[in-house]
């Protein structure tokens, strides 16, 4: 009888126990403040993770929350070093039985690249959700508190498992590979131009409509657990009357890979194309992406990639093409294999 009571008590506790979520704070406007509610001047990364959590007392009703400060920067100052630290910490936390999901507060400028880096380096099915804000914490109608409440709601939702790293912003759920910041100031800035959002989250009510199909998390071959740095990969932006000497500079200054943000379908100014071919001949990997903002860059389309030794980014944004090339170069130097990675991830 006593045994039965213990079993009943334990099952009752398990049934009504709240999930455990760790909020890792990195900075950004969501942790920013200004001197008045309508001030357009403000500073990112001025309030701590504890203050962010305290501003949303409703979180306690849905989850047990713990906070950790990873950095407190404007995400324009994001580094490979912080990415590695964040990925290792997330992997460490997700191995624990008492952690059910993770929310990462982040500046919006580089949020999508961090999300994709984690999507390719986290080895768990448990939900990892990135969130930011377009209005700082002192602002009138700040979007941070509801965005955080929604992000935690996504992190504790059973359907969020095994969907890769997610981004919850402005009532929408996006897949890490697809999401992009598309407007400098608007609260609906995050969009997934090639596929659309995969779900919605409305005052904590989570609904999914799609699931990502590209390889991520447990199906990804990239392992950063023993890495302290990543290969140097640079990005150059193509334009009419291009100044190709920038490429010459990169060739001479340690670049292991160059992401070309080409015109249209990744097209290049002739002088730039010549110098990028020279880069390839020196062992530097060159990936063609596009400045257009959506759509694939076609392999051997108007540009003959096979002849030039170039790789195409498929429909990855330039910032994410850089993330993938850095990780690819930790595995192989083979151009054909790296090309396949752009079609797999
Ligand atoms: N510059 C800020 C950042 O990325 C912008 C933001 O968070 O909205 O940290």
Automatic annotation (TrEMBL):
SUPFAM superfamilies: Glutaminase/Asparaginase. Substrate binds at residues 75, 108-109. The active site is at residues 29, 108. One of its GO terms (biological process) is asparagine metabolic process. Pfam families: Asparaginase, Asparaginase_C. It comes from the Bacteria. Residues 232-341 form the Asparaginase/glutaminase C-terminal domain. Keywords: Hydrolase, Signal. Residues 1-17 form the signal peptide. GO terms for molecular function: asparaginase activity. Residues 20-212 form the L-asparaginase N-terminal domain. Belongs to the asparaginase 1 family. This is L-asparagine amidohydrolase. It comes from Candidatus Campylobacter infans.
């Amino acid at each position: 009888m006593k045994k039965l009571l213990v079993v009943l008590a334990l099952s009752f506790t398990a049934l009504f126990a709240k999930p455990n979520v760790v909020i890792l704070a990195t900075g950004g406007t969501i942790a920013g403040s200004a001197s008045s509610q309508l001030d357009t001047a403000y500073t990112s990364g001025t309030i701590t993770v504890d203050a962010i959590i305290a501003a949303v007392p409703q979180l306690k009703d849905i989850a047990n929350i713990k906070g950790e400060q990873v950095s407190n920067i404007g995400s324009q100052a994001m580094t490979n070093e912080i990415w590695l630290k964040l990925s290792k910490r997330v992997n460490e936390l997700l191995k624990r039985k008492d952690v059910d999901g993770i929310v990462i507060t982040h500046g919006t400028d580089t949020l999508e690249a961090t999300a994709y880096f984690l999507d390719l380096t986290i080895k768990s099915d448990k939900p990892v959700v990135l969130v930011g804000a377009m209005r700082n914490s002192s602002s009138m109608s700040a979007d941070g508190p509801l965005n955080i409440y929604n992000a935690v709601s996504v992190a504790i939702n059973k359907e969020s498992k095994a969907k890769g790293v997610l981004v919850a912003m402005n009532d929408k759920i996006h897949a890490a590979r697809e999401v992009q910041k598309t407007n400098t100031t608007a609260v609906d800035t995050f969009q997934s131009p090639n596929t659309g959002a995969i779900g919605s989250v409305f005052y904590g009510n989570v609904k999914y409509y799609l699931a990502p199909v590209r390889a991520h998390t447990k199906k990804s071959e990239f392992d950063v657990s023993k890495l302290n740095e990543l290969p140097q990969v640079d990005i150059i932006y193509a334009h009419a009357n291009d100044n190709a000497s920038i490429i010459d500079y990169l060739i001479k200054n340690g670049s292991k890979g160059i992401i070309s943000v080409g015109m249209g379908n990744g097209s290049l100014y002739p002088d730039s194309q010549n110098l990028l071919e020279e880069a390839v001949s020196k062992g530097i990997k060159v990936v063609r992406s596009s400045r257009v903002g959506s759509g694939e860059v076609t392999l051997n389309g108007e540009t003959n990639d096979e002849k030039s030794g170039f790789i195409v980014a498929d429909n990855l944004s330039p910032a994410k093409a850089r993330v993938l090339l850095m990780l690819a170069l930790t595995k192989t130097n083979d151009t054909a294999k790296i090309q396949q990675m752009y079609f797999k991830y």
